[in-house]
Every structure is written in C-alpha cells, then in structure tokens.
Amino acid sequence: MGHRGERASCLPLLFLLLLLLAFCRGRVVRVPKGPLIRVMGTEVVIPCSVSDYDGPSEQNFDWEFSRETDFMRIVSTWDSTFTSEEYQKRVGNGDIKLRRSSNDAVELVIRNIQPTDQGRYKCSTPSTDATVQGNYDAEVQVKVISDGLSVSGSKARSSMSLRLSEGDSFKLRCSATTTSPEHTHLHVTWQIKSGSTWRDILSLTHEGKFHPGPGYEERYRNGDIRLDTGANDTYRLSVSQASSMDGGAYRCLVSEWVRGADSSWQKIQEKSVEIATVAIQRTALDVVISTSNVSVTERDSLDLTCNTTTDRSGIFQVEVMWYFSASPDDTLSDAQVLLSVDRDSVVRDSTLISLSHVDRNSYRLLVRDVDVEDSGYYYCQAAVWVPLHNGSWHKVVERTSVPVSVVVTALEPDYEVFLNASKTPKFSDDPTELNCRITNAQDTEANIRFTVSWYYRKRLRSDDVVTEELLAAMDADWTLLLGDRSRDRTQNGEIIFSKKAADTFSLRIQWTSESDRGDYFCVISAWTRHRNNSWIKSKDVTSASVSIFWATQDYTLTVEAVKLKPFFVAGHTFEMTCKVSSKNIKTPRYSVLITAEKPLTDQSNPNGTTRIISLNQDSVVRLEDWTDQTRVDGVVLEKVQENEFRYRMYQTQISDAGLYRCVVTAWSPGGGGMWREAVNGLSNPIQIDFQTSGPVFNVSVHSDNPTVYQGELADLLCIITTEGMALEPDDMSFDVSWFAVRSFALDREPVLLASLDRRGIVTQSRRNGSSDLSLERISPLEFRLRVHGCEDHDFGNHYCIVTPWVRSATGVWQREPDIKAKPIFLSVKMDVLNAFKYPLLIGIGLATVIGLLSCLIGYCSSRWCCKKEVQETRRERRRLMSMEMD
C-alpha cells in the first residue's frame, strides 16, 4: 500500500514536468544583441534566424523599422506588397534588400546607411506551427555614428616611386587617425600588390598583436621586416635585404573595430591608401674563367684565372670559390671544393694548390705538379656581399662560371713486349709453356709497375671473326683475376700463371688438350703511382700471337681373340688369348672385359650377353655378372704381356656354351695423373659348343584336385620325365622352385613360393596369411608342394622351374638349362554349409529355451496372482475408502 501511495503522488509531478517542457518548447527568432554601432555611409548587414519551428523547412521573414514607437514595414521574403511607401524606392534600387543564407536564416542588407536609419529593427516570422509557442519576432537597436577615420601617406595622398638595388633597405610610412565618438580600435595592415592581387606583409591588429602574412614569417622572425608606430599616429614599415620579390605597389590598409554587446569585436569600416611603388634592380654579376679548354702534361703546373664583373656600387665584397668535378653533369653539391677566398680576403689553400687575388676583379688558381687524376672540369663561383644596418653582411647575388675542361696527359713509359713458347706439345696432354718478356724499356722510373694479361683466340678455318677470351689478368697490386675459360683448371693446378723475373711473365699448361689449340698473346700494362699512392694504368702494349698447334690422327685399335685348344669336352678348362695393337695413342694402357653371348633358351640371361670378368688399366681384376657361388674361382683373367691377355674358365659346363669376346678399351695419360679413355675395340667371337647325346628333360605340373575349399589341403606335383639316354638316379639331381601368379591371366609378376636345391635344402619365401607351405621330394623325378589351410590369396596359376644337374663320365656335375612347366590354376572356394552349421544349431537351441521359459512364467502368474480372495480384499478396501471419504 505504501508503494501505491508513492506512485500516486508522483503522477501529478510528472504531469507538471511534461506541461513545463511543452510550454518551454516553441519557435525561437534570433537577431544580434544590440546596440549595433555602424558608421555612416557603410554597408550594414543584420542577420536573423529562426529555430524549433513546425511546418515547411523554408521559413519567411518580415523586417520592420521604428525610430520611436511606430514600426514601418521595410521588406518581406514572401509578400512583395509588404514594403511601406517610404522604403519602396530604396528597396527598388537595391539599397535595401534581403539575402537568404539558408532555409531558416536571412540577412537584411542596407547600403550607404544614414543617420535617419538609426533606430530599432524587428525581424518577424509568420506562424507555421500547429500551436502558438515561443517568440515570433526579435528586435535589435542600430546606432549610426559619423565617419571619423582618416588614412594618409607620407607625402600628401600621391604615392611615391622608389628604385632600389638588390639587398638595399627601405622604409614606408602611413598615418591613421579616428575621431569616432565610440571607443574604437584600429587594425593596420601593410600589403604589396603582385600581379592583380594584394598580399599581406605585416599587420598590427586591433588587439595590439603583430601578425606576418603568408611567406613573411621567417623574415619577420629575423627582423628583416618590422612595423613600428611613431608620433602623429604613424605606422612605419621597414624592409631589410630587399629582393626581387619585394618589388611592387605598397598600400596601407586600416580598419576600425568596436566591441559589441556580446564582447566580440566587430569591424565597422575599412580604408586604404597606396603609399609607394618599389622597383628592385637585380645586381648584375659575370663570372668568367680567362682560358678555355686546357691540356697539361703530367708533372707540369695548371694556371687558371677567374674574372668577376658587377654593376654594384657602394660598399660590397666579393667571395670566390673554386670547384672540381670529374663529370660536367655533376652539380656543385657533388663537386669538390678546391680553394676559396672569403669577403675578408682570407685565402684557404694547400701545399700543391694556391689561390691569389691578382686585382679587385681577378682571382688566380695555381695547381702545381698536376696528376692524371686532376683531369676534369673546373668551376669558379663568385658571390657579392653588402653590409646591413646592424653590421652584418648579406649575400645579394651569386654566379657560377662555365666549366673549363682540363686534360692531364700522362707521361707514358717506352717499352716493347716479346712472346715466345719455351715448350710446345707434340701430342695431346703434353705441357705448353709461354713466356711474355718486357724488352727495350726506357724512361721507366721507380714509380712505374708492370702487369700482364693473357688472352686466347680460337682458330677457325672459315673467315668467321673470333673474339679473344681472357685467361687471366693482373691488378696493379699483382692480384690475379681469372677468366671463365681458365678458372677451374687454374684452381685444379692444370694451368699455372707465374712471374719468373722482373721483366718476364709465364703461362704453363700442364696437360694440353685439343681444346687448347689456338693463338695466344699477352698484354703488358704499365701502371704509374700518383700523389695519393694510388696506381693508374698509363699504357698497354700487346705482343704478337703464338700459335699452339699439332697434327692429330684418328686413334686405331685392333683386338684378336685366339682359342688355344681346338676341341674339348665338358669339365675341361677353356682357354683363349686376346692380342691388342694400337696406333696414334701416346703410351697406351688397356682394360679388358670378357663377355659371353648365351643362347636365348637360357632363362637366367634373357638378354643374351653376359659380362663375366674384367681387368682395368691398372691390372685390377673384377667379377662382373658371374654369380655362380660354387664356381667363384672358376674364371681367371690375367695380363701376359703389355698387349696380350689370357682368359681361362675351369670345369666348363654345358650351360657355358656360347660366343666369347674380348672388349678392350685403350687409355692414354690425362691431366693430374688421371687416365683418359681414347678408343674401344671388340674382338672376334670364340665359340664353346659341347657335342653331347645326354637325356632330354621335360617338366609338368599335376594336381588331383585343383579346386579346394578354404582351410583344406592342396597338393601340387612337379613331375620330371626323361627322353633319350637313360641315367642312373644317382647321376641326376634337380633344383626345383615353385612360383605363383595371383591372377586368372598371366599378367602379373610371379611370386616365389618355395625352392628345393639339389642338396635337399628347402627355402620358403615370407608369407602374410595363416596358410603354410611344404615342399618335399617323393620320388627321384617327383616333387610335391602342399598348401596347408588354404586361404583366398592362395589362388592363382602355379608352376615349377627345374634346373637339372647331370654327372659326366669324369665325375663332374654339369648344369643343364632351366625348364619351366606349364602352369596349373588353383581355385579356393568357401564351404557355405560348414559356415552356417554351428550358428543355425545355436539359434534353434536358444529359441527353444526362451519358449519354455515363457510358458513357465505364464503358468506361475495364473496360479498365484489371479485368486478370488485377492479380488474380494480389493473390494473391501475400496469400500472402506469410500466411507472414509464421506
């Protein structure tokens, strides 16, 4: 209840607050706070604005005037008949008009205001609001005073003309007074007219502050521009160090200001008077070097004179500076200052360079003991300085002469260059040595140093122009700079550049190749030491060329293979020799390779050619493709003579039948102790052919049941049969390997399953599944492969490869060619009945048990849970509950 009372007491207060806000809100018309003090004969602008209104955004305004009580209508923005008869002529002439500044503001403009216009001005706005609220008009008092401002120059009212020189100073005066009855302040501004516009120079504001115009701030801070007040209300402008920008018409602009009712300053009138026209004459200065381009010999003196001419009169001083630049395009900021003489005639010179003041307008530069580095362009720069009133100096003009080109000719030493070959090659890889010698050297002083550059020019049979290639060059400090052609070979020690004596330089090629044939020449450079201890190249002398060339012939190599025994049988030793002859090869060495071309029926070598054994040029023997571990020492290759080699093969077998050749490579000594391959040769073939009448072996694969179910056993038999001559079982032995191709078509790589060698050793490959393999010999000519617990991945084409071994009459085991059996496809199926037998039995048993259990639960529920006594007890309980409810 207490909260309800509080809410009830707040309602009237809130209602009153809303009424107060509604009452306070309304139209507001504003004019400046008066009185407005204006000067007779000037233009008066009175603004009026309206805010917080309803209706259209563009509002209308009415202006009225009253001297005492009654108001006269002046002008309206919306009613052309609003103007009273007294103002119709002035409004029609445009002396009084309205100027709209925005939708809610206008300005009343009265030109040439008179004392009769003094009075009250009222600005009214017609109502466009839904309710009448606020004020709809506002008044302002305007006071008209007489014109008491007078502005004049130093000489009556006509402006004077001044002609000044650049750097001079001048002063201008103007007088400004006011006899206004009001308390007014004057604002004085000095202006200059450049072109058609006036620019502010310096102002003394109505608040007594100095304000420089744009571009004059620095000169005002330096004191070069000042504004001083003097007696009789004079305002003096002082300008020091006049420049060309100070030329033009000057005027004094004075405005009168009064403080309004709102304490703000208002400008009530403005007057100006032109004081003077100032012309600034630029100071003429010509700077010329007396001589044009100069050529001087090294160690002589360079003499240059700078002449200056100026039209300046009075007191002034000239400052001169000499510059040096290596390029005519360099600016003075990039040039080097040599010497200078300041305006006090103080000369700054050095030991080798001097500057003297010959007369008032001439300045002489003398450089003694010139050097080649002194070649370049010389400038003379002069500046004219004038004194100022405060005792300081001001630079009025500065000019730079046209540069003079100076060429210093070096003193070249006189010498000749001779090139000869002390060693020339007759064969490839022979050494070459060239000597470049300085001869007939004259006028070579201690400060002369010689270096060499080596060049190579390739020889061509045609008339094509071939440019020389730089092999190596030396700097003045004898640092060797290598060319692209010789860089790698020099670093490897194949090419050596050296200085044998003070006047002899050497080039040595340790092992000359065919690419080195051509013309060679050298260039001797003379270097001269200069004043700064630097070395400058002064002369180059080129030698005559020397030709390095030798006749070359094609290499020839002949290889002949000879069989030492015309006939032999299996188990004997095969022996042949290779004889080599060569031409046009310098001190050759030979490497030999023995190859065999086997019949294409050989499964171990489908390509037909086998590399057996090799012997290199250093007599190192190496087994190549000979992989028979039982006969590692069964082949021998040895060097009998320098050009004869012998090959032996012990206990030959029938599988060794084929064509045997010697492949010989001739090597010649190369650079750095290395051997270079010259030419290859191939001998005639030597055939090994065994005439035998032994048995012929055949192999087949058989299986009683090639289709098996998963988990069963698969049996595969590899059966060997013989034809022809019968052999005892002890004279035969076999290597058996089983392979499988895991596809219906033979389009995949075969996989090795297991192998059994002739010694009875079984080797199985690694398997990923759970099935297992066994391989056994069940008879002399039958081998069985068993796959235990077959899986899906055991399917595919299966075959065996048999390598027969036969014992000859001499007791030597001979290896026969491999025999491959035709593949048989092994299929692995799934046994559906066995797969579902046990799950089916388990399901039937579980269903029977669940059915019996359900019958038992139903019988027990009907036997003990549905008796009559239980129903009566329930009815009694319900009755008692009904009585209780009553």
Automatic annotation (TrEMBL):
Residues 12-133, 166-274, 285-382, 413-542, 695-803 form the Ig-like domain. Keywords: Disulfide bond, Immunoglobulin domain, Membrane, Receptor, Repeat, Signal, Transmembrane, Transmembrane helix. Its main location: membrane. The chain crosses the membrane at residues 838-859. It is a single-pass membrane protein. Residues 1-26 form the signal peptide. Pfam families: V-set (PF07686). It comes from the Eukaryota. GO terms for cellular component: membrane. It is found in: Membrane. PANTHER family: PROSTAGLANDIN F2 RECEPTOR NEGATIVE REGULATOR, V-SET AND TRANSMEMBRANE DOMAIN-CONTAINING PROTEIN. This is Prostaglandin f2 receptor negative regulator.
